[in-house]
Design goal:
PH-domain like, about 35% strand, about 130 residues, alpha+beta, four-stranded antiparallel beta sheet
Length: about 130
């Protein structure tokens, strides 16, 4: 019973955060070709937080996102081409961060730390989008 309840809750979370909406546009079944940074964190819609369960990767083609296996129900892996991503640097009380917005899913932001953004940018090389105001 606990497992069923957990799967339902995690699936509902995918709708609240906007991950489900992103998956309608950017779901991938392909294995990711690049370095994946595990145990990362991000904020999404309405201040929802994926703390330490996010896997993020980048290559010259785009951004790869997935969750740890345990949290995967309702959260299929995503691959988002750089051409669909806008980048905005932000400063908050907690420090600097980078907000990513997605062309095919407006209103579903992904906010990551500047440190994670720097690592992804290094992996993306020339693919990383120019700074833009969203």
């Amino acid at each position: 019973m606990f497992i069923l309840w957990f799967v339902i809750v995690i699936t509902v979370v995918s709708y609240i955060t906007g991950w489900r909406r992103l998956s309608e546009c950017y779901h991938t079944d392909r294995p990711f070709d690049g370095k994946v940074l595990r145990f990362q964190s991000a904020l999404m819609r309405w201040g929802s937080h994926y703390g330490g369960c996010l896997n993020a990767g980048a290559n010259t083609e785009g951004l790869y996102l997935s969750l740890m296996f345990f949290f995967r129900p309702g959260h299929p892996p995503l691959f988002i081409p750089w051409s669909d991503i806008a980048v905005q640097e932000e400063s908050t009380r907690m420090g600097k961060s980078v907000k990513l917005s997605f062309a095919k899913a407006p209103g579903i932001p992904l906010t990551i730390t500047s440190e994670l953004a720097d690592k992804l940018k290094a992996e993306a090389g020339y693919g990383w989008p120019e700074k833009s105001v969203v």
